[in-house]
Amino acid sequence: MRKLEGKVAVVTGASKGIGAAAAKCLAAEGASVVVNYHTSKEGADQVVAAIVASGGTAIAVGADVSDEKQIAELFQKTKAEYGHLDILVNNAGVYAFGPIEEVTAAKYHHEHNLNVLGLILTTKAALPLFPAEGGSIINIGSRVNSVAPANSLISSASKAAVDAITKVLSKELGPRKIRVNSLNPGVITTEGFIAAGLKDSPMQKHYVSITPLGRMGEVDDVALPVVFLASDDSRWISGELILVAGGE
């Protein structure tokens, strides 16, 4: 029997990258998956099609998870389709880099409204769908939270907030048998990384050179730990901030 047979998962920001890989890996272990997207319906539909072609179950639901009304609609559709929720993967997020001189209130709110407030409101809206048996919430943070490189002020602050949220909610939701953990990836070869022209760039070579395992991270390097944290294999793990960075 597959590890997540009969479970229902919502993965935010799942039309590409880590979110898409997580959705596929969760479905491969038997979960029915809600593939959330904001702008790329085409990408989300492709993820759903790949899951269905492999014998899994999934639907795509559009929602901006920095918007409370759209978050509510996301979980209304989840309930209507599947009746409950066992796994929430808070993956949706944005990032930008630049010196403090370029920081504006608008840039700050753009990132924090999704990376921090959106995560909080998404989790809040999901809670009524969890059964009495509990479940698992997996937040996707970032290695930037602790490395805190120059020119990452807003992004580092938002991901540090995700760490704090994970710790707080693990204690708050523990009595409800809901485990809360965070995966903090290093640099991962995603569509965004490639689109930015960073593949085979000096920056990529630098990251590979300082990573003990000697390579870039791939999306499945994060998606597979998502499955572990979603399953009963991690039933005694909560409140953890797990680095997924090749030892760096």
TrEMBL record:
It comes from Tunturiibacter lichenicola. Its EC number is 1.1.1.100. Keywords: Oxidoreductase. It comes from the Bacteria. It is an enzyme of class 1 (oxidoreductase). InterPro entries: NAD(P)-bd_dom_sf, SDR_fam. The keyword Transit peptide does not apply. GO terms for molecular function: 3-oxoacyl-[acyl-carrier-protein] reductase (NADPH) activity. Transmembrane segments: none annotated. This is 3-oxoacyl-[acyl-carrier protein] reductase. Belongs to the short-chain dehydrogenases/reductases (SDR) family.
